[in-house]
Each structure stands twice: as C-alpha cells, then as structure tokens.
Amino acid sequence: MTTSAPDPDLNRALIAELARKTGVCWVRYDGGTHAVWHVWHDDALCLVSGGEEQPLPGLDDDARVEVVLRSKDNGGRLVTWVGTASVVPPGSELWEPVTAALVPDRLNAPDLATAAEGWARTSVVRRVVPTGELVESPGALSDEAHRATPLPTPATTRGALPRILHRRVKRRPKLS
Question: How much is the pTM?
Fold first, then answer.
C-alpha cells in the first residue's frame, strides 16, 4: 500500500519535522523491524549501529528501507516513508558533519569526546535519505496491528526479586 500525497514538498517537510521531534523510529527491512535512535541532519536520518551500539543485522549499503515515525504527543504512528540507507565511511566528507550531529544526542555514552573515534573502529554510521515515497501518511494509515515477536536477546530478567522495603502488612488486624 504505497501512497503519495499530491505535494512532495509537504511530504519532505512532514518527514523532517517528525524526525526532528522524535529520537526513536522503527526501520523495516528484510521482513524485520528494528527500533533505533537517530538524528535528523542535512535532510537525512542519521544513525549508528553495530559494535556496542544498536544492532541492525543484515542492513546493506544502498538498501531500501521503510522508516516508521511516531507522534511525540501520543506515541501513535504518523507516517511511514521509504528511504535508501547508505554507509558513511570514516574519513569521508560526510563523516565529520554526521558524527558531529550524532554525538550530542547519544545518551549514556561513556565518553562523548571519543564517541566518533569509537564508532569508526567498531560501528557503522548510516544515512537514510527519503525517496519521496510514502507507505503510510496521516489520514491513510493501515488498520494492521504491526505487532511483531521481539528479537532474541541474551538479556534476561530471571533471578531473585528485589527486596521491597516498607511492604504493606498482609495480616488482618485483630477485631476484639
């Protein structure tokens, strides 16, 4: 279900506004959907993956992807657009401006001063440039649930429950 609004400039403006306002989007490719943090810079969605960053397995250079953006107000899906993902190689002319935009928005980074150098060694920096094609837009959203099974992970929550202080007493008070 590919739709296109009559005004491509309006589509670009909508995508740019939503991408600037949210820090998380969903990237769909090869039948999988991945939540990613991103930055909108120079009319493209910029993101980092691999190494100690978010996983995006099997995303090739010049791959066609769908990007789902949500509303900052209520978290609902607003637009899904098609883009072309391309790798930004370290040392290229795009590397400095893209990493300069990504570094300040990286939460919980051990050292922001050396984040870009670490990404050059262990991760992949990508730009996703919109093609102008919309899959879903306001007023033309699909009725599908878009539910998916979570990806396998070594993370676990099993183990002893944490000790809770000031727990309510479950005994009944004596009435006589």
Answer: 0.79
